[in-house]
Amino acid sequence: MANSFATSLSRATEKRGMLQSSSTMTEASFPRKRPSLVRKVLFRTCRHVSIQLKTGAEHINACDHGPERGIILLAIISDIHANLPALEVVLEAVEASGSEAVVHAGDVVGYNSFPNEVIGLLKSRRIRSIRGNHDRAVVSGNTSWFNPYAARAVEWTREQLTETSLEYLRSLPPHLVMETGEATIRIVHGSPRDEDEYVFPQQASPLLLDEGECDVLVMGHTHVPFVLRTARGLVVNAGSVGQPRDGDPRAAWVLLDPEEPWAEVQRVTYDVTSVYDEVLRVGLPEMLADRLLVGR
Ligand SMILES: [Fe+2]
């Protein structure tokens, strides 16, 4: 068991090195101290850390391998927005990274044309998600604070969703907390203060970690990815799988070592034009298709 675990970690670390060389960060790169691989392997294999998700009083194992085996790397995704081709490519990259669990920071649906398919894939992969503002709007039908394009996409999505998919969206919690034994990770859509607050890179600060009572804070909502490394811990925004807005149309996700802690934004290319065509084909606003091409 220990040997296979060490081999798995070695492979994951090797692949992470490959990913680092091709990744992009929107914040300045921070110098980071990495322990030697040998020390890290011994440390990991002796401790058998388990990660649990907490949703209120509920405790859920995030790892299918059982409590005797810990998580080495965690993949954070956010704002899929019903973009199935982007999600499929991101999950391929996640698998290649050696990540053993994936968590989604909200906005499963809205904007793009594959809501039922995306929900089906998240369920089949047992990927935990919280709710985003678009998920809430689709459940409630309240689009009073959405722009006309987003509101139209919410209406279209409500017309397409199966009852099973709608029930899935209703079941999403507002936030998740993960405990590793050494680190507390809070996953929110907006901010610890307000699930609808936008926290862009220039607003990120260590105070968010105090407000979130955590060592690693993971956010979504802005569609602008970043990693802020502080003495107190990490503040991370996973950007968007399905509709990036930082000028880079490639799908974004974040690779996280929750106990280091260490995180890095990853980007992957997907078939944007196929999603563009599909948005137009189903009658969603042209503006939603156009912005996919430029990542804005
Ligand atoms: Fe979003």
Low-confidence stretches: 1-69
> Strand order of the main beta sheet, please?
2-1-6-7-8-10-9
Full CATH superfamily name: Metallo-dependent phosphatases
**Bound molecule types:** fe (ii) ion
Task: Record the SSE blueprint.
Elements: H1 2-22, H2 37-47, E1 52-55, E2 58-61, E3 74-77, H3 84-97, E4 101-104, H4 115-124, E5 128-129, H5 133-140, H6 148-160, H7 163-170, E6 175-179, E7 184-188, H8 207-212, E8 216-219, E9 226-229, E10 234-237, E11 251-257, E12 262-268, H9 272-281, H10 286-294
Parallel strand pairs: 3-4, 4-5, 7-8, 8-10
Antiparallel strand pairs: 1-2, 1-6, 3-11, 6-7, 9-10, 11-12
Helix pairs in contact: 1-2, 5-6, 9-10
Characterize the structure shown:
The protein has a single domain (2-294), classed as Purple Acid Phosphatase, chain A, domain 2, CATH 3.60.21.10. It has 10 helices and 12 strands. It has helices at residues 2-22, 37-47, 84-97, 115-124, 133-140, 148-160, 163-170, 207-212, 272-281, 286-294; strands at 52-55, 58-61, 74-77, 101-104, 128-129, 175-179, 184-188, 216-219, 226-229, 234-237, 251-257, 262-268. The strands form 2 sheets. A 7-stranded mixed beta sheet has the order 2-1-6-7-8-10-9. Strands 5-4-3-11-12 form a 5-stranded mixed beta sheet. Helix 1 packs across helix 2 (37-47), helix 5 crosses helix 6 and helix 9 (272-281) runs antiparallel to helix 10 (286-294). The longest helix is centred in the first third of the chain and has 21 residues, at 2-22. The radius of gyration is 18 Å and the shape is globular.
